[in-house]
Amino acid sequence: MKFADGFWLNKRGYEVNYASQAYEITAGKNSINVLAPTNYIQNRGMTLGGPVLDVTFSSTQKDVIKVTIDHYKGTLDNMPQFELTEDHSYTPTIKEEAEYWELISGDTRVTIGKWNWNIQYYYKDKKLTGGSWRATTVINENQFRVSSRLAHSQDDTFWSYPQDERSTYMREQLTLSVGENIYGFGEKFTTFVKNGQSVETWNSDGGTCSEQSYKCIPFYVSSRGYGVFVNSSDKVSYEVASDTVSKVSFTVPGEHLEYFMIGGENLQEVLSNYTSLTGKPALPPAYTFGLWLTTSFTTKYDEETVTSFIDGMAERDIPLQVFHFDCFWMKEFEWCNFEWDKRQFPDPPAMLKRLKDRGLEICVWINPYIAQRSKLFDEGKENGYFIKNPDGSVFQCDMWQPGMALVDFTNPAACEWYASKLKALCEMGVDAFKTDFGERIPTKVKYYDGSDPIAMHNYYTYLYNKTVFNVLKEYYGENKACLFARSATAGGQQFPVHWGGDCSAEYTSMAETLRGGLSLCLSGFGYFSHDMSGFEATATPDIYKRWAAFGLFSSHSRLHGNSSYRVPWLFDEESVDVLRFFTKLKGKLMPYIWSQAVKTSTVGVPMMRAMVIDYADDPVCLNLDRQYMFGDNILIAPIFNDEGTAEFYVPAGKWTDIISGKQYEGGKFYNEKFDYFSLPCLAKPNSIIAYGNFEKNFEYDYLKDTEFVIYEPEEGKSIECNIYDTDAKKVFTLTAVRNGGKVEVSYTDTTTPFKVKVSGKDAVEVKPTSAGKIIIDL
Questions:
Q1: Where are the alpha helices (DSSP H) in 252-399?
Q2: Please, what is the end-to-end C-alpha distance for the chain in angstroms?
Q3: CA angle (210 as vertex; 204, 213 as ends), nearest 5
Q4: Average pLDDT over residues 486-515
Q5: Residue 58: HSE in the Cβ half-sphere, 13 Å Cα cutoff
Q6: Are 541 and 569 in contact (CB under 8 A)?
Q7: Residue 404, CB half-sphere, CA atoms under 13 Å: how many?
Q8: Is the pLDDT of residue 153 over 60?
Q9: Which helix (H) or strand (E) holds 46?
Q10: What are the b/e assignments for 502-525, b being 16+ CB within 10 Å?
Q11: Calpha distance 499→428 (Å, rounded)
């Protein structure tokens, strides 16, 4: 929200009051509390009115500083709360200096000036950001403006942000340094660097072509190496170098604002600290990294169609891992009833058994809505399982399914009821659920637990996806659950995987999909997928092939469309060859990919990383949004044009294309043309990449006959490569160190044969009987 009218004035209709003075500072064992009047108190008479802000600085986690700002504390306690992992026994260091108080958490600290309002954040000796004059703010909208806003409201959709009578806002403004970039806020398809933008966290079903987003996260990161998480599921409004061009401001409605300042040595550490607070991404099963194929959405399909697709992939030697049934696995007008449409699928258990006998995993589409014609509608209505109107009747609408109701996941009994329907599908053979929708959530309703309906709009998706994820986790076990989710909020990274929503079959949409994915992965999410070749319309063979390469160098790879099928032979024969090539290459890379996935789930850094995450010290990498790191060691630059050219930047060092073997000197841009069987796919210098003995199943022995390739080892620097089995247990480590003209390779105890080589040299076959060491001449 913008309140400024230039530098000196505020917009008409708003009373803006800024914290002006640290009038009284009280230090406790774990926190510092500040009484902050919005006028500088010069005499006793000035203490007779307000507003006055109550500000508390504390820390419940190393390198994370919590800031709680209150105007009035007597408001209703009915806001949904993010499930945060806080250690309330954690004790930061609190010190008093001559000019300020200081709270130190690990290497991150905040200083609080003793007189004029002056808050500054540091990591070690590096200033991160801060606020002084016109920073911490309470804003009141006068009654004339409220009445005018309500009278002129054009709100005609039940899921829009309501034009209600709330008239108080809390705002914080933090400074930006010269050249500082801001990223994140969830899956945002707008310009990658968010400077100059107004950003709002309000989940919407708006496709990939606008400022709307399926996954709004009140968290951003800075190129200076810090993150800020606003602890509110309400609509958080950000002005990023826009309302005031030297600041980021964030505003929430109401009388309370809480945020966390998150420090770290680099952006990887910042994301690790953030996900320690909000939840680490769970580890999806290894099979989910293989190729997914779907029925598409509104196409006609039955068991015969499905079988023909699966047969066609097998006949063309394209490894297929997961088959997904979209909405019409259920009868039209009855979504969701969680029952197969017997007209199209007469014997579902037998069909699923046949598919699973062929080595396939099964996914089916669901959403949290119950159509009026569903046999479950009356059951849900009678038992109070649905969201209600203020008068107590069931909320219903015709947007998606006629007369549909929404499951109320604040009701534990409703969660159990919904989960029981999904468990029955698991017992039938379903392995994963596509949890679609969850964005168009009404705001003029009431919930079972009394939660504020406006703040529930964004939070609803968390409860929905958590309920479904836990069904799979309880049925299949730890690290064996996988969703294909569209909507999310903070903490939703714990319930992977997430895909990018409704993109179009064109290069611009492919690029915006990547932007959205990189922004999401800068917001704590570990994995990302998208509809290869686009959801809307039908791609040209050219786009299909380029998107296949991009899709198979994403953490998860799915062919899905709206009104047309996505099997490659419907595009051209070369599409078959290209899809086969990149599917097999991804399968071969599974020892590397799986180890990166394990790291994502334990550390919290994403598999698909914007270049700024790993290379924030390279100014060129601060703005790059058409290339990314795929794990620690591979740089990917998808091709976004029908000329087949890629413009990409290579950071310092000598990088090696893992497909062609061509080497690139770092520190400059390249503009090259690539055929359909290639794209910039570069191994980082001083890295080891493991290539497995892949056949057709993405779950296999990631050590047996694997080839470890050492790329451009640097003198005296140790490199390590870990191998995990499909249960995420570490089974092997290979280490390499260059000493002059030789590379010394050591490995842990194993009797499994493998190969090792330096890139460009012949491989050495190793048949170990225990731990050992070999020397490779360069």
A1: 267-278, 303-315, 348-357, 376-383
A2: 60
A3: 30
A4: 98
A5: 18
A6: no
A7: 22
A8: no
A9: none
A10: bbbbbbebbbbbbbbbbbbbbbbb
A11: 25
Please give the average per-residue pLDDT across 355-382, as a whole number.
98
Whether 113 has a pLDDT exceeding 70, the answer reads yes
Residue 166 CB: number of other CB atoms within 10 A?
14
pLDDT of residue 164: 60
Tens of pLDDT, residue by residue over 690-724, are 999 999 999 999 999 999 999 999 999 999 999 99
Which letter, b or e, does each residue of 277-305 get, where b requires 16 or more Cβ atoms within 10 Å of its Cβ?
A: bbbbbbbbbbbbbbbbbbbbbebebebee
pLDDT score of 159: 75
Position 479 confidence tier, pLDDT thresholds 50, 70, 90: very high
pTM here is 0.97
Active-site residue list: 436, 439, 502
Report the C-alpha gap between 242 and 77 in whole angstroms: 33
Helix (H) or strand (E) holding 47: none
In this structure, what token pair is assigned to residue 245?
A: 């061009």
> What percent of the chain has a predicted confidence (pLDDT) above 70?
98
Residue 160 confidence (pLDDT): 78
HSE (CB half, 13 Å, CA atoms) of 226?
Answer: 28
For residues 156 and 54, what is the distance between their CA atoms, to the nearest angstrom?
A: 38
Q: In 10 A of CB 209, how many CB atoms?
A: 16
Q: How many CB atoms lie within 10 A of CB 550?
A: 23
The per-residue b/e assignment along 585-604, b for 16 or more CB within 10 angstroms, e otherwise, is bbbbbbbbbbbbbbbbbebb
